[in-house]
Specification:
- With about 190 residues, this protein is mainly beta.
- The chain has helices at about 1-20, 90-95; strands at about 25-30, 35-40, 45-60, 65-80, 110-120, 120-130, 135-145, 150-155, 180-190.
- It has an eight-stranded antiparallel β-barrel with strand order 2-3-4-5-6-7-8-9.
- About 20% of the residues are buried.
Length: about 190
């Protein structure tokens, strides 16, 4: 009887020891080789551009995505579909103003991955997205292969108090309306 108890205790300690060897690996994102592209839509068309990633990392447990953190420099908003002197500077200034992202007071945005489910490099990711000091959950798909992660996010700007030109809040905008959702297309190299 005493031998069985000792064997059971030994097996329990051994099992706990193996469980403690689960490897959690943090992989830093190479920000200069990664990209964040945005696209916003209005009734009469769309605009697109880029935003710079300041820092980021992905966490893996036994090669399975478990988390991550990212910081974006909102002051780096760049419009790529307009030329200099032909509306580019005006739109960039408007996007940085309090009508949109208020970058003077909110220079950074962030995303913290809180849950990731999936296998074979395809994950359903949930995270906390913070823009203009407001945090809301967001869910999206992320594909990971060969040290590259790719994700496409649809962000409802009105959740972050960005209501300018939104037909959800203002009547009579007609063809001046700007859609509430914008896209973020992210490629991360690590």
């Amino acid at each position: 009887m005493k031998t069985n108890i000792l064997k059971s205790a030994f097996l329990l300690v051994l099992a706990l020891s193996f469980a403690s060897f689960t490897t959690i690996l943090k992989k830093n994102v190479e920000v200069t080789e990664s990209s964040v592209a945005w696209k916003g839509y209005k009734v009469t068309g769309s605009h697109e551009g880029t935003i710079k990633l300041v820092e980021g990392s992905l966490a893996f447990e036994n090669d399975v995505l478990t988390g991550g953190n990212f910081t974006i420099d909102m002051t780096s908003i760049n419009v790529t579909d307009l030329e200099a002197g032909k509306g580019k500077e005006k739109l960039e200034g408007h996007l940085k103003s309090d009508d949109f992202f208020g970058t003077e007071n909110h220079a950074k945005a962030s995303l913290t991955i809180t849950d990731a489910k999936g296998k074979d490099g395809v994950y359903r990711v949930t995270g906390d997205l913070t823009i203009k000091g407001k945090t809301h959950p967001i869910t999206f798909q992320m594909n990971i292969a060969d040290n590259v992660a790719v994700a496409e996010l649809k962000v409802d700007r009105t959740k972050y108090d960005i209501k300018y030109g939104s037909a959800s809040f203002f009547d009579g905008l007609k063809d001046k309306a700007i859609y509430d959702e914008f896209d973020l297309n992210v490629t991360l190299k690590f």
